[in-house]
Design goal:
- The protein is α/β, with parallel strands linked by helices.
- Helix content is 38%, strand content 15%.
- It has ten helices and eleven strands.
- Strands 3-4-7-8-9-10-11 form a seven-stranded parallel beta sheet, covered by helices on one side. A two-stranded antiparallel sheet has the order 1-2. Strands 5-6 form a two-stranded antiparallel sheet.
- Strand 5 and strand 6 form a beta hairpin.
- The two termini are 25 Å apart.
Length: 281
């Protein structure tokens, strides 16, 4: 049976099927803005159903509908067991080129903005999101990660993570300060996943149900879905959770129906033969 809990950083136990806040404000890059209150209802229902790991970022939003504000409006004062993860690094604003990244000196302001918007005195988990719109690799992250490590030492952050990194960048970060979690694109990171397993680091894939140029391979999952009376997306989530005890899934949605469908994936039991096939292409 798949163990459904994992302790981030050794002291933050979470259910391995969590919630990603990226889709709260809009369905996609070109989707229409969702109603703020609908997102609040989804967040409250997620926690009612046992979710205690929510992944967010200050740049998740559309217009005046902002994920951090929705999280605070829905869930504050927060339950003691609720873990909120955020990420900093990208910069957005008028006149900034696409893919702009914060300097080490600018990271404090981004962390303080997250603390303010979420209504927290300390952030549970902060990822350094590396790179712009490209894949991982090609730059040093030590100086920026060290800036976040200093904020951790000052008590503003409990645990640190890295996102969109290659193996060399992960090693570079670990030489500076402990890494509690890695958030990367699932389909490209078998080597990093293996390292996370060895080190007890949480592996939190973004686009857990496909996305962008990485759709889920429905032809590989449809047979299992038919056997179980489930959807292909549910089987993909179940396979992802079964792939490694350190993997945490954070599917996101702005729909109550999709939320409940996603969370039901935790109860699916796949056969060894079904698990032998990759969940994604």
């Amino acid at each position: 049976m798949t163990t459904m809990t994992f302790s981030i950083g050794g002291d933050l136990p979470v259910h391995r099927l969590g919630f990603g806040a990226m889709r709260l404000a809009a369905g996609g890059a070109d989707g229409s803005t969702r109603d703020r209150e609908s997102g609040i209802a989804v967040l409250r229902r997620a926690v009612e159903l046992g979710v205690n790991h929510i992944d967010t970022a200050a740049f998740y939003g559309r217009g005046e509908v902002l994920a951090n504000e929705q999280i605070r409006g829905a869930l504050a004062p927060y339950r003691a067991d609720l873990v909120i993860a955020t990420k900093v690094g990208p910069l957005f604003g008028p006149g900034l080129p696409r893919g702009s990244q914060a300097t080490p000196e600018q990271l404090r302001g981004l962390v303080e903005a997250d603390l303010s918007s979420l209504g927290l005195d300390r952030l549970d988990l902060v990822y350094l999101r590396v790179g712009g719109v490209t894949g991982p690799g090609g730059e040093s992250i030590a100086e920026r990660y060290a800036a976040l490590a200093e904020l951790r030492a000052q008590g503003l952050i409990r645990h640190l993570g890295v996102s969109n990194v290659d193996a060399a960048q992960l090693a570079e970060a670990r030489a500076v300060a402990p890494v509690a979690a890695v958030q990367n694109l699932h389909t490209t990171d078998t080597a990093i996943l293996a390292e996370c397993e060895r080190a007890g680091i949480a592996f939190v894939p973004f686009f857990p149900l496909g996305g962008g140029e990485n759709p889920i391979a429905t032809e590989r999952l449809a047979k299992a879905a038919a056997r179980l009376g489930a959807t292909v997306a549910q089987v993909a989530l179940a396979a992802l959770l079964a792939s490694s005890p350190v993997t945490l899934a954070i599917p996101g949605t702005g729909s109550l129906r999709h939320l409940e469908e996603n969370l039901a994936a935790a109860d699916l039991a796949l056969t060894p033969e079904e698990l032998a096939e990759p969940a994604q292409g």
